[in-house]
C-alpha cells in the first residue's frame, strides 16, 4: 500500500512538472530537507542543501522567464523534454521497495508520460494564446500554470489519491474531446 501511495504522489508531482519543471523539484527538495518526505535510495541528494539552492534558483529563473514575451515560447520548447525527464525522476525518487526494472518502468510510463501530456497541453495553449493575442495573454497563462504547479505539488503530498484521480479525469476528458473533435471533422473530398 505504501508503494502505491508513493506512486500516486509521484504521478501528481509529475503532472505538476508539466506546468513548471522546477517547482515540483523544489517542493520535493524542501519536503525531503525538512523530513516530511522520504526519498528512495540513491535519491537522497534531492534533499540536500545544495540541491535546495539549485532548485530554488532554477525555479526563480523559470518563473521569471515565462513572463518575458516570446521567451516563454522558447522555454516551452526546452521545457517539453525537461518535464518528461523531471516527471520520470520524481516518480523514481519516491517509489521504493520495488525491483529497479519495475520502478523505472513505472517512472517512465506513469511519471514521464503524465508530465509530457500536461506539458503538451500547456504548449498548445500558449501557442494558441500567442497566435490569438500576439502574446499579450501569455502572462495570464504563466500565472495560471505557476498556480497549477504549486497547487498540484502541495496537494500531491497531502492528498495523493485525490490528485491522481483528478489527473486521470482530466486526461480522459481531454482525450474524449480530442476524439470527439476528430470524429466530427468534415471529410475533404
Walkthrough of the structure:
With 189 residues, this protein is mainly alpha-helical. The protein has one domain (2-183). The chain is 79% helix and 0% strand. The chain is built from 7 helices and no strands. The protein has helices at residues 2-19, 22-33, 49-65, 71-94, 100-133, 138-158, 160-183. It is globular, with a radius of gyration of 17 Å.
Please tell me the total number of domains.
1
Number of strands: 0
Largest sheet: none
Q: What overall geometry do the principal axes of the alpha carbons give?
A: globular
Q: Structural class of the helix and strand makeup?
A: mainly alpha
Distance between the termini: 55 Å
Strand content: under 5%
Which sequence of SSEs, written as H and E, runs from N to C? HHHHHHH
Unreliable segments of 5+ consecutive residues: none
Structure described in brief:
The chain has seven helices and no strands. It has 189 residues and is mainly alpha-helical. Helix 1 runs parallel beside helix 5, helix 1 packs antiparallel against helix 6 and helix 2 runs parallel beside helix 6.
Amino acid at each position: 500500500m505504501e508503494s502505491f501511495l508513493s506512486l500516486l504522489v509521484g504521478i501528481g508531482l509529475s503532472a505538476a512538472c508539466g506546468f513548471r519543471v522546477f517547482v515540483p523539484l523544489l517542493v520535493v527538495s524542501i519536503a525531503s530537507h525538512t523530513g516530511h518526505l522520504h526519498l528512495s535510495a540513491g535519491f537522497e541528494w534531492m534533499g540536500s542543501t545544495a540541491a535546495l539552492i539549485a532548485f530554488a534558483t532554477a525555479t526563480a529563473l523559470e518563473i521569471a522567464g515565462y513572463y518575458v514575451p516570446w521567451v516563454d515560447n522558447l522555454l516551452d520548447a526546452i521545457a517539453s523534454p525537461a518535464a518528461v525527464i523531471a516527471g520520470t525522476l520524481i516518480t523514481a525518487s519516491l517509489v521504493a521497495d520495488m525491483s529497479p526494472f519495475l520502478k523505472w518502468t513505472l517512472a517512465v510510463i506513469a511519471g514521464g508520460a503524465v508530465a509530457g501530456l500536461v506539458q503538451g497541453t500547456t504548449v498548445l495553449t500558449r501557442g494558441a494564446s500567442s497566435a490569438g493575442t500576439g502574446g499579450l495573454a501569455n502572462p495570464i497563462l504563466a500565472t495560471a500554470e505557476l498556480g497549477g504547479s504549486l497547487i498540484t505539488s502541495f496537494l500531491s503530498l497531502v492528498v495523493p489519491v485525490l490528485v491522481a484521480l483528478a489527473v486521470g479525469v482530466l486526461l480522459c476528458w481531454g482525450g474524449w474531446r480530442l476524439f470527439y473533435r476528430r470524429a466530427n471533422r468534415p471529410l475533404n473530398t
